[in-house]
Specification:
Elements lengths: L1 E6 L7 E5 L4 E5 L6 H8 L8 E4 L2 E2 L5 H7 E4 L18 H9 L16 H13 L5 E5 L7 H16 L3 E5 L3 H7 L2 E4 L4 E2 L9
Parallel strand pairs: 3-8, 3-9, 6-7, 7-8
Antiparallel strand pairs: 1-2, 1-4, 4-5, 9-10
Length: 202
């Protein structure tokens, strides 16, 4: 379980909430309200006053690499530091299953990063994140560059992660996606609330 206690992000009031294992909390708010800043603060990428706990252990009790391996952050525009996909994602049975889940086969590992579309990079970054099996997923617009078919594959993979017991914080511009996936919502500048029909299809 992820627990946030009195976390101060930008000009927002202190935020406190929990995300149980196997549940998705959608973070909503207008552009510039601090959604991405909140995810980055929880991921320990930006400084922020307050406390964040994972399964009762405070973030400050862990080294940054250990925390970031357990609390995985997917940026809206993921970074790449090597030339080919295979240099980021090793060809293992686990990675091949994940690649298949989002519409790729193993041949994508030989492709160079500049030859990939924005949507392909987005799906591959999710695979790269999930290989390490983090306990918490911080997902910032994970399907923003995807067509309907690819987005459906990613959503199905996200459902599987929830069934596997991972906690998910989701930032999405797609209200239908939030209705399908979220168990609760956090409106920045407002209050946490539960959907009328949690996880129901729109």
């Amino acid at each position: 379980m992820l627990r946030v206690d009195q976390l101060r992000v930008g000009g927002l009031p202190p935020l406190s909430f929990t995300v149980p294992d196997g549940e998705c909390l959608a973070v909503e708010g207008p552009s510039g309200s601090g959604k991405t800043r909140l995810l980055r603060a929880i991921a320990d990428l930006d400084p922020a006053d307050g406390h964040v706990f994972l399964d009762g252990a405070e973030r400050q009790e862990m080294g940054a690499p250990q925390w970031r391996s357990r609390v995985g952050y997917l940026q809206a525009e993921p970074g790449w530091w090597a030339d080919t996909v295979g240099e980021h994602i090793a060809g293992t049975p686990k990675s091949e299953r994940l690649l298949t889940a989002v519409g790729f086969d193993a041949s994508v590992l030989a492709r160079t990063i500049p030859t990939l579309s924005t949507g392909e990079r987005q799906r591959l970054a999710l695979v790269r994140l999930l290989i390490n099996e983090p306990a918490v997923l911080l997902l910032d617009e994970p399907t923003s560059a995807l067509d309907a078919k690819a987005a459906a594959l990613v959503e199905e993979l996200m459902r599987f992660q929830l069934l596997a017991g991972r906690a998910v914080l989701l930032v999405s511009h797609n209200p239908n996606q939030i209705e399908r996936l979220a168990h609760a919502r956090l409106l920045l500048g407002g209050e946490r609330r539960t959907p009328t029909q949690p996880g129901a299809a729109a």
